[in-house]
Amino acid sequence: MSDWTLFEVFVRSKHGLNHKHVGSVHAADAAMAMENARELYTRRSEGVSIWVVPSAAITASSPDEKEPLFDPSDDKVYRHATFYELPKEVGHM
Amino acid sequence: MYAQLVDTGVKRLKTLEEMSPEERAFQEKIDAEIKIEPKNWMPDGYRRTLIRQISQHAHSEIVGMLPEKNWLTRAPNFKRKLQLLAKIQDEGGHGLYLYSAMETLGADRDEEVAKLHSGEVKYSSIFNYPALSWADMGTIGWLVDGAAIVNQVVLQRTSYGPYSRAMIRICKEESFHQRQGYQILLHMMRNGTDEQKAMVQDSINRFWWPALMMFGPHDSDSPNSAQSMAWKIKRMSNDDLRQRFIDQTIPQLELLGCTVPDPDLKWNAERGHYDFGEIDWSEFYDVVKGNGPCNRDRLRIRRKAIEEGTWVREAASAYAAKQKQKNAAA
Ligand SMILES: [Fe+2]
Ligand SMILES: [Fe+2]
Ligand SMILES: [Fe+2]
After folding, report:
1. What is the value of pTM for the model shown?
2. Above 90 in pLDDT, residue A66?
3. Is residue B298 part of a domain?
4. Coiled coil where (chain B) (predicted)?
C-alpha cells in the first residue's frame, strides 16, 4: 500500500469556515482518497466538505526559513489595531 | 500500555553539557514544551523510539479489533450490533491515524506491518486474551478501553506534534467506547438473570489482571523510561498511570455490584489511593514473548487478511492506472 499516493485531507467543519488539515490517507487515485477520507475523518458529521490533495503537490516552508520568513513581521506592531491609542470619547472603534 | 516495552537504545541520560549544539537546542525546545514537527532536526534515537512506540500503538489498535469482531454476529440485538460495529470501526481508524503519524517520521507502513507479521514488533499484551462471552464486550470497553484512555489522555501532551494530534483525535472518540462497554455490564447486572450476572463477574475476573498489565512493568523494571520521559515521549510513569486507573475504576466496579480477584485491594486513606496486590509478571512476560492464549491466532488472522486482500489492492491499482491513461487520451 506504500506504493499508493499519499493524500493530505482537509475538512470544512461548518458552512462559512475554512477547510482545515486533519490528516492523510493512502489511495490508488483521488476518488478512492475521497472515499477513504470520508470513512476515516468524518464518521461523526465532522464536516460538510472534504478536499484531498496529493502530498507531493504541497510546497511547505522549511523550519530553517522560520526567521527570514516570519521575523520581519515581528517588529511591525503598527500593523495591529491595538497599536493606536485613542481617547475614550471615541468609544468602540 | 498499547506500547509496553519500547527500547530507546539509551543506557544513560546525557547532561545538557554533554550534548552537541543541535541536541541541546532540541532538548531545550522539549523542556520549553514546544512541539517537535516532522521537518525539525531530531536525534536518531528520538526518531527510532517514536517509530517503535507509534507503530506498536497502531498495531494494537488494529489487532484490538480481533477479539471484538468475534461477537459482531453474536450480539444480543441489532442495536448492540450497530454500536459494536461503530466501536470496532473507530479502532481501525485509530490504527490509521497512528500509521500516518508514524509515516511523518520517514517510516514505511508496509515495512512496519511486515515487522508485526514476522513477530519482530509487538502489540499490546491485552489482545492475546480471548473474548469468551458477551459480557467480555462490556468488560473490554470498560476496562481495556478505560486503561487505554488513562494512557492516551496523558499522551495528548507528548512532544511529537503528529503523535500528539492523533491522540487528541483518538481521545475524543474513546469515551464512547468505554461508556458503551460499561452500559452493557450495567444492563446485565440490573436486568439480567443470575446466570447473566455471573457471566459479568466471570468476565471481570478474567480481564482484571491483564488490564493492569497493560501499563507495563514497574518503574523500577523499566530501563527505557528515563530517556522517554526526558524526551517527553512518555509523560507519566507506568506505576503512576496504573494507580490512576485503579483509583478511578473501583468506584465504577462497586456501582456494578461486582468485585475484582484481588484480596489485597483496599482503600488506603493515608495515601489517598487504593492499595492492590502484586501482578503476576511471569504471565506478562510470557504473553509478551508470544505464549499468551491467542498470540498465534491473532497473527495468523492478520497475515491472512493481508494475503487475501492482495487482489483487491492490485485491482484498485490497475483501475487507477487505466483511468489515468483514459484521461490522458481524452
Ligand atoms: Fe482505540
Ligand atoms: Fe482500543
Ligand atoms: Fe477504543
Report:
1. 0.91
2. no
3. no
4. none
Residue B104 in domain: yes
pLDDT score for A69: 81
Show which residues on chain A lie within 8 Å of chain B, measured between beta carbons: 1-4, 6, 22-26, 28-29, 32, 39-40, 43-44, 60, 62-63
Query: What is the number of domains present in chain B?
Result: 1
**How far does residue B91's CA lie from ligand 1's centre (Å)?**
4
Q: Given pLDDT bands bounded at 50, 70 and 90, which one contains residue A65?
A: confident
Which contiguous run of DSSP H or E holds residue B329?
Answer: helix B310-329
Show the cell assigned to B297.
Answer: 491466532
Residue B141, in any domain of the structure:
yes
Cβ-nearest to B323 among A25, A29, A39: A29
pLDDT computed for residue B316 by the predictor: 94
**Ligand 2 centroid to B237 CA: how many Å?**
20
Domain, as residue range, for B251:
16-292
Looking at every residue in chain B, the average pLDDT score rounds to 93
Per the CB < 8 A criterion, the answer to whether B126 and B213 are in contact is yes
For residue B330, the model assigns a pLDDT of: 76
Residues 6+ apart with CB under 8 A from B270: none
The CATH class of the A5-61 domain is: alpha beta
- Check residue B276 and give left, alpha or beta (phi > 0: left; psi -120 to 50: alpha): beta
Q: Give a yes or no: residue B225 inside a domain.
A: yes
